[in-house]
Amino acid sequence: MSTPHNNAEKGQIASTVLMPGDPLRAKFIAENYLENPVCFNQVRGMLGYTGTWQGQPVSVMGHGMGMPSIGIYSYELFAFYDVEKIIRVGSAGALQPQLDLGDIVLAQGACTDSNYAAQYGLPGAFAPIGDFRLLRKAAAVADSKGLRCQIGNVCSSDVFYDANPDSAEKWRSMGVLCTEMECAALYMNAARLGKRALGILTISDIIGDEHRALTAEERQTSFGNMIQLALDTALSE
Prior knowledge:
Elements: E1 16-19, H1 23-33, E2 35-41, E3 48-53, E4 56-61, H2 67-80, E5 85-94, E6 104-112, H3 132-145, E7 149-156, H4 167-173, E8 178-180, H5 183-193, E9 196-206, E10 209-213, H6 216-236
Parallel strand pairs: 1-4, 1-5, 5-9, 6-7, 7-8
Antiparallel strand pairs: 2-3, 3-4, 5-8, 6-9, 9-10
Helix pairs in contact: 2-5, 3-6
């Protein structure tokens, strides 16, 4: 069995998948956190691996940038490979002053400027939310580890270089914690297919202050906290 974007065979992918945007980060996670990782996908360079964490099977696979990309990869994992849980692990830009570089955000909900939900023909606006059991467990694990962590709404945007200079301020005024580009589509796919999903994000930069961003070394440490939190969340809830 394979799909147009994944050449894995049925059974090669665990029921729990961590998904960073960058396929090379998926490779890094597999080689540095999982035991006995085996590569199951190389189509279009979107690397995927399955190994074990604390003796339990877990997979990690890149999802690319933006909602169309994660929409494809997460849909195929949910619909064709019997994946039950996907946790996105990625970076985000802070909107609120209480957030600092390296902080973790658990995406309780995902606002969006995307038209992704139009495919469902709903008679209103759909509100994409993360899985509560995963959210509750992630919050408990983060607290036990003493991590700086906030929970709330994020904004999943289709636009990285925004022509509207007021966009960030408008989302900020509604209490949205940070911006990223994928959680809303992941949550909609999970809802449509009866699966479970959560976004765990690390603040890598401050929107409106281009001089405040994580260095390469700081990213390594902060992202390590996020990855371990995601693994502990997925396998212990």
